[in-house]
Prior knowledge:
The complex is a heterodimer.
Chain A (H helix, E strand, L loop, with lengths): L12 E8 L2 E6 L3 E6 L13 E7 L2 E7 H4 L12 E7 L2 E7 L1 E8 L4 E3 L11 E6 L4 E5 L1 H4 L9
Parallel strand pairs in A: 2-11, 5-7
Antiparallel strand pairs in A: 1-2, 1-8, 3-6, 4-5, 6-7, 9-10, 10-11
Chain B lengths: L1 H27 L5 H20 L3 H18 L7 H22 L9 H12 L7 H5 L19 E9 L10 H9 L2 E8 L17 E8 L3 H7 L7 E8 L62 H27 L7 H24 E3 L1 H18 L3 E6 L4 E3 H22 L3 H6 L6 E10 L2 E8 L6 H10 L11 H6 L22 H10 L3 E7 L3 E9 L4 E9 L2 E6 L3 E5 L6 E4 L3 E6 L2 E7 H4 L12 E6 L5 E6 L1 E9 L13 E6 L5 E5 L1 H31 L1
Parallel strand pairs in B: 6-8, 13-22, 17-19
Antiparallel strand pairs in B: 1-3, 1-4, 2-3, 5-7, 8-9, 9-11, 10-11, 12-13, 12-20, 14-18, 15-16, 16-17, 18-19, 21-22
Helix pairs in contact in B: 1-2, 1-4, 2-3, 3-4, 3-5, 4-5, 9-10, 11-12, 12-16
Amino acid sequence: MSTQPDTVNPNDIEFVKLVAGGQDFCIEVARVREIRRWSPVTPLPHAPEWLLGVMNLRGAVVPIFDLAMKLGLGSTAITPRHVVMIVTASDRTVGLLVDAVAEILKASDEAVSNAPPLPGANARLIQGMIALSEEALCILDVDAVAPVLAGAAP
Amino acid sequence: MMDDLRDTFFAESEDLLTAMGEGLAAMSDGSAGSETVHAVFRAVHSIKGAAGAFALSDVVAFAHSFETVLDAVRSDRLVPDPDVMRVLQRAGDVLAELLEHAREDRSDPPSALGSVLDALEEITGGQDDATPDDFVFEPLGLGMMAPLALPPAEATGFHLDFRPTGNFYPNGHHHQHLFAALSELGELTVTCSVPDLPPSAETDAEGNQLSWKLELRTDADEVQVRDVFEFVEGLCELELRKVESLDSFDDRPPHDDSTLPEVAMPTLAQAPDPEVLPRPLDVSSAVPTPAAARESAPRPTLRVDLDRVDRLINSVGELIINQAVIAQKVSEAGLPPASSLVAHVEDLSLLAREIQEGVMLIRAQPVKALFQRMARVVREAAEATGKQVELVTEGEETEVDRTVVEGLADPLTHMVRNAIDHGIEPPSERIATGKPACGRITLSASHVSGNVRIVVRDDGAGLNRDRIHATALRKGLVAADAVLTEAEIDNLLFLPGFSTAASITSLSGRGVGMDVARTAITALGGRIGILSTPGEGTTFNIILPLTLAILEGLIVTVAGQPMVVPAASVIETIRPAPRDFIALGHADRVLAVRGDHVPVIDVPSLLGFGPELDPMDAIVVLVRASDDSLAALVMEAISDKRQVVIKSLRSNVGQVAGTSAATILGDGKVALILDPDALTALAARRRAAQHAVQHLASREVRHEHAA
């Protein structure tokens, strides 16, 4: 059992700010396990286009999702500068391909709000919003952006 | 702590049930001596005693009735004729079921409980020598620790008063272990007393209220006797008095100078090794009966948390992959063949393989317990249908991965019930056809070239092919004009939703059919086949992998990607001439293989990885799916045959079309493991979809003409 280290304000929540499809998003720090450089993946048959394939993470087979594609921002033109965030979704380990990981943000819990009722299919991918002094960031729902594949039809 | 003890109790009960089952089986077929009866009695008795400690009153009460009958048999007051044996067998089943219910915290009693209890009581005529309370707390299983030989008559001995205190049991000690060690020193007589039992409401299951009076006839000196209690000092109260003559055993001697106070000492060590038991000699009335449950002395075993084993297996899997990476890098480095590095890498690879095989053996279990469960199923089913059935088992010692053993329980149960319900004929019918009245079901297990083969065979009427065909027609499972071979008709049984029973019986056919059994076996990476001869019976052949962690596979190339085809399903690899491919209709092709025509599956295009391969460049892997159908998998290349570590895709990724799992190759890349069954199903779905599209297109054309 480990306990959270005491911070100045125990109500602060930490987020990782990232860039996908040219836009800024964030994910709770607690969800992020590591950040890796992009390396080619093994493609999966009849997988949705936002599922790039699987890679070997120290013996575990981990699916890699094109986050921009999943968010409806177009497919990512992958370069060696792209990175993969290894995150925990429910009890699974998944990788999210992003343009860049920007910084770690702290936000008090008052600054975090539920997602506004957005139109469209992407609404359920957003877990909430953080209001910062200059901008508002969407908090991604990791479970929703990296879903488990159900039986795929040809 | 209590949960741990509970787990241990259920684990040990399983062993005892196994011993009981063996003994009862031996008694039934008449091969049992008096030792066997004692062994069965002891097993039931031990279960009762231990169940008492966990307040499983149902188990205690039933085991008590059960052992009352067994006691009558072992003391020759009751002849175990077939009727009695039938009741005893049923009682064994009920006891096993009671324990199962207790383990699952179910409060509903087994359905047969009442009738079997009545039958047991009828046998004993309601007589009951012992009061249950005595039994619950009686020291158990001591018979196993009876002395090897009687000590000389002039032997001296000791009186011991022994009472475990609060932390004795929680620290993993058990009085039986101590008594076993004591009985190695001489002849031990044990009496249990409950001297200061508080009202039951105050009784704490963890706090021990019991004490034992032990009489030990021995030549050993006091130090040797005290040594036995070395590890439990501070956890028990012990009074030890030396007795000079045998006679004094009969009287309670007064306290004398040799009475020593208890010494407090920290406990560090484990209880004495319970496996070091002397062989039993004979039965005495003072000591609970000795055991000869096994023909040979049991080999020492170790109970290990399954998680630990699985972690180890995972690490070894990583080691194998890592070793493959190193081997590949070394071979790529272009070192001279004489280089010592090459030799060392080869050693490493051998060693890694050896470790892997050793670790896999840890998970292996004999199928014996599984087969014994089937004996129960046979008896229940025979009773329910009023048929006479005996179960013959072969190869009980065959070891299979634990997961496979567990996964087989349901499909085997289903097949055995089916065989009795639909296969074995009623006694009158059997006699009329010149068969013995008693039907026979044979279960056998054997190792066949890296796989395990399980056979379920009955000597019943065989499959009624006309009825199967008629049913399949009625349910629309086959086309009315289709001409089917006998084997094809037999395989209709495995279609989902198929049930041949004219009426749904309580036994089998609850809306599930053999397809469920097949699905379960396929999920274990196995295959099932069926063979039936009218009038002679039906045989199910099940082929299973030895382990679910490793697979022998062909490394192939599909659309530039390395993939694995399980070697178990590969029949042969062919480099066909383009003329061997014969087009059928619009998009289907078959491959001519020695006069046979096998449907072609172009794997790259089926998986959506590219256009169909040019037959000139193609290589074919001929595979057999679990329904015995053949398929010609077309792909670009075959590079290697080797063992791969299976990595599930299901947990992290989900269901991936056409595959069963993945593996990690020597270069660290993930390779998909192709599943012939999934590929054939995928091909069938695609074909159906294409036909639908064509149908639609032709309709549109007609509409245009009409317009």
